[in-house]
Amino acid sequence: MFEYILSLLTITVILVLLAQSYNLSFGLTGLLNLGHIIFYGIGAYTAAILNTKFGVGFFENLILAILITGGFATFFGLLCLRLSGHYLAIATLGAAMITSVVANNWMSLTNGPLGIRGIENPIVFGYHFDSALSIFSLYFIIVSFCLFLLYKIFHSPYGRILRAIKDDELAAISVGKNVFSAKIWSLILSASFTGIAGVLYAHYRLFLDPSIFALPEIIFAILIVVVGGRGNFWGCILSVLFLQFISEIPRFFGFPDEIVGATRNILFASLLIAVMFWKPNGLFDKQLKKTLEKNKK
Amino acid sequence: MIQYFQIKNLCKYFGGLHAVDNLCFSVKKNSITGLIGPNGAGKTTAFNLISHFLPRDKGDILFQNENLKKLPAYILVRKGIIRTFQQIRLFPNLTIRENLLLALSKNYDGWWTSFFPINEAKKNEEIEISLQKFDLEKLIDEKAEDLSYGQSRIIEILQKKLTGADFILLDEPASGINPTRLLEIEKLLLELKSNGKTILIIEHNMNFIMKMCDEIIVMENGKVLLQDTPQAVQKNQKVLEAYLGKNNK
Ligand SMILES: Nc1ncnc2c1ncn2[C@@H]1O[C@H](COP(=O)(O)OP(=O)(O)OP(=O)(O)O)[C@@H](O)[C@H]1O
Ligand SMILES: [Mg+2]
User: Fold this and answer.
1) B19 C-beta closer than 6 A to ligand 1
2) Pair A142, A35 in one domain
3) Domain end (from A157, A189, A213)
4) Quick one: A6 and A121 in the same domain?
5) Is residue B222 in contact with ligand 1, taking CB distance under 6 Å?
6) What are the DSSP E strand ranges found in B15-57?
7) How confident is the model at residue A171 (pLDDT cuts 50, 70, 90)?
């Protein structure tokens, strides 16, 4: 039981980082980059391939994944960010499909649908993180540090520009902001942190296959940010905890794994639609707190 | 003589419509100049061209001895030309404080400011002082979308002022504003002028224009009809015709 809870917590910690970094571009800047999961996949594949083929260690992988996902994001941004709204959404979804096809078919690199086995647990300064508790602790520290940096970005003058861009791009240009550059940087930063989350995932699961790019994963990432409230820092973290909690409920009733997975997908897709309809600002909206306070008075 | 600001043979076509057609005029440094003309004369389009929000089809824009080539619009702001829109454009979900802070750091705040924010306290102080002059300091942490129309206009002009731009283009700042607020806007514009700024105003409110402007440019069908002092413009027969139509005399 203890092991089970620890593994759940470890995955949750990785998801928090994935969600919060996605929240930076999708939530705060308002970029409809629906295919953001590709950066998670690229980070994970970077770690998996370099570790199994070349024996590259955990820390080196973190740094390389930041560079590689950052590089991809730059390329991707220069290509797609001139598009706006729906076009950007379609282009990024398309990119996610392409990466998925590549991961499935480039056998010599990714081993296709069979996936990559034998990824090592993290080894840092000679210490093997192979117990569930030690990995959780390591990841908790790494993710906390990343969250601290993200918090700084969210609440900085730069973060303010990103929120301004989400509100009204033309108005942002009219006060002298280089909107295009701000957007590209938000995508690069967002992708790099997502890449870190991908590395954490690969070195924890020890096995990686192309299902990391699949549609349910994409919907889940979007759902987390939407439920938390786009651009809402604490809401996003609460949202991961909340969704992880409800997705584990069916397990307690002893349903078999296939059913748990399927119900989870149905539940999440319906929740996404419901939230967008009734609570477009997320379940943890500050406005809600305000109205409650007002009603008390 | 080299003018402070000048446009030469500016053209913009929308299909067959010549919205701005060989437009030429100049603006004197440290003046308030009015740009008037009937609906559809091309005034807003001229602003869009000057501020580089729209690409021109032809013509030159000269500002402080520089011929402004085709540049991204945000660069114009950094060079000192700033504009408002006919429909107020603030950041509705940001607070007044944030709306104004965005203007204060005129140059681009890169992501590195996340870790080294510069002078935030001093900037906040500057904002509070500028709001106090208009009794708006109580609203500083309200969202922009919660302001009244008149308040939004004031905030919008304050925001442009805080960028420190030298040449300020205002598109119908007085329309739909009640008389008391209008006095505040007049006060704000005169203050800007006394600080050495140059202002170009599009406006349909003739009392306001006649009272505020040193010079008036009248546009019709994308061209300049007349550029003269308010008194001369008021008496001019051609202007009356442009506004009322030749048959209505
Ligand atoms: N983006 C556009 N595409 C097509 N036509 C346009 C566009 N913008 C303006 N026009 C046309 O150009 C002409 C000039 O419009 P403009 O908005 O500059 O007029 P204006 O002088 O500002 O009028 P108003 O006093 O009503 O604001 C109008 O006939 C308008 O319909
Ligand atoms: Mg107009």
Assistant:
1) yes
2) yes
3) A213
4) yes
5) no
6) 17-27, 32-36
7) very high
Query: Do A9 and A156 belong to one domain?
Result: yes
Same domain, A231 and A138: no
Q: Please indicate, yes or no, whether residues A8 and A42 belong to a single structural domain of this protein.
A: yes
DSSP track, A242-283: HHHHHHHHHHHTT--HHHHHHHHHHHHHHHHHHHHHH-TT-T
Domain count across chain A: 2
Q: What is the mean pLDDT of chain A?
A: 88
State pTM to two decimals: 0.90
**pLDDT band for position A294 (50/70/90)?**
low
Give the residue numbers spanning the domain of A279: 214-297
User: Mean pLDDT in chain B?
Assistant: 89
Residue type, B34: G
pLDDT of residue B248: 45
C-alpha to C-alpha distance for B78 and A177, rounded to whole angstroms: 9
The ipTM assigned to this model is 0.90
Q: Which residue out of B14, B51, B53, B203 has the highest number of ligand 1 atoms within 8 Å of its CB and is therefore the one to mutate?
A: B14
Considering chain B, what percentage of its residues have pLDDT values greater than 70? 95
Nearest CA to ligand 1 atom 25: B39
pLDDT at B106 over 60: no
* A201 lies in the same domain as A244: no
pLDDT of residue A285: 74
User: For residue B22, what are the CA distances in angstroms to B4, B12, B60, B210, B222?
Assistant: 20, 9, 10, 26, 8
